[in-house]
Write a structure and sequence with these properties.
There is one protein chain. This protein starts with 9 loop residues before the first helix and ends in a 6-residue tail after the last strand. It folds into three domains: 2-101, no CATH class; 105-183, no CATH class; 188-259, no CATH class. By secondary structure, it is α+β, with helices and mostly antiparallel strands. It has helices at 10-36, 41-44, 47-69, 77-101, 124-129, 154-165, 185-191, 195-200, 206-219, and strands at 104-110, 113-118, 144-148, 178-179, 193-194, 226-233, 236-243, 249-253.
Length: 259
């Protein structure tokens, strides 16, 4: 009975291998896009190039090798296919691990801007010391919003300053100093600039402007009710749209605040 499911030609073997690889890759892509890197983080953090490389190796290279080596009745065929499968799975797992470790886990307001903090940039000791449960673990479903507040102890403040200058963790990498964003929203309002300014200085980015317009239109309020602050991400800068009075976050857009 099992022989009826064995591919008779290399093209059948290629088609089966390609279909299985595409199904696995599509599942992984869905997890990355909707859980680990919700919009607009995926595009802005360079996820597209890494994902294209990872999926290309998994979906294209593995089935292509099967197409080359497959011949029904060939001696050692089962071993060859097993080796291909193991290498393909290993490459996929490694690529997924890299993407997972680089996922954004916190969006932290710090001093005069927001910082996107990725999983492998969080100081593990500070994570263990935090007393706020919402910041004591790394989320799997997109970044959590937080504020940061320097410690009152002068020695601790000095240590953070010198550590950051020397390449160590800055305050936005230290969850023990996170506070709910609402506690620092008033300061964010003071630092923010009118959203109309962001729109007028990014006229060469129609797709991003359209996303900004949709964000404002969805709120049902005029653009003058909102302001923006920079959001530093691994590959550049984005903008956080906030309520100009309360500081409440409306959303993020892939527009450069320094343009």
């Amino acid at each position: 009975m099992l022989t009826r499911w064995i591919p008779r030609t290399r093209w059948q073997a290629f088609a089966i291998h390609l279909s299985l690889s595409a199904l696995i890759a599509a599942t992984l892509v869905a997890i990355i896009l909707f859980l680990w890197y919700p919009a607009p983080y995926f595009q802005s953090m360079g996820g597209r190039d890494l994902l294209a490389l990872m999926v290309g190796v998994d979906v294209v290279l593995g089935p292509a090798i099967t197409l080359i080596i497959y011949r029904l009745g060939k001696k050692g065929l089962a071993f060859d296919l097993a080796v291909i499968a193991v290498l393909q799975v290993a490459a996929l797992v490694y690529g997924a691990y890299i993407v997972f470790e680089a996922r954004p886990v916190f969006t932290v307001y710090s001093v005069d801007r927001f910082e996107s903090v990725v999983a492998n940039a969080v100081d593990p000791g500070s994570l263990a010391r935090t007393k706020r449960p919402e910041f004591a673990s790394l989320p799997l479903t997109g970044p959590r919003l937080a504020g940061s507040r320097l410690p009152t102890d002068p020695e601790a403040r000095t240590k953070i300053m010198f550590d950051s200058i020397g390449g160590g963790p800055d305050i936005h990498n230290l969850p023990e100093y996170y506070v709910p964003y609402e506690e620092v929203a008033a300061d964010a309002v003071k630092r923010a600039k009118p959203l109309s300014r962001l729109r007028s200085q990014n006229t060469t980015h129609p797709d991003e402007l359209a996303e900004l317009d949709r964000l404002v239109a969805k709120s049902g309020r005029p653009i003058d009710d909102f302001a923006y602050l920079p959001l530093s991400v691994r590959t550049g800068n984005m903008s956080v749209v906030i309520d100009a009075k309360t500081g409440a976050v409306l959303g993020m857009v892939a527009l450069d605040p320094w343009w």
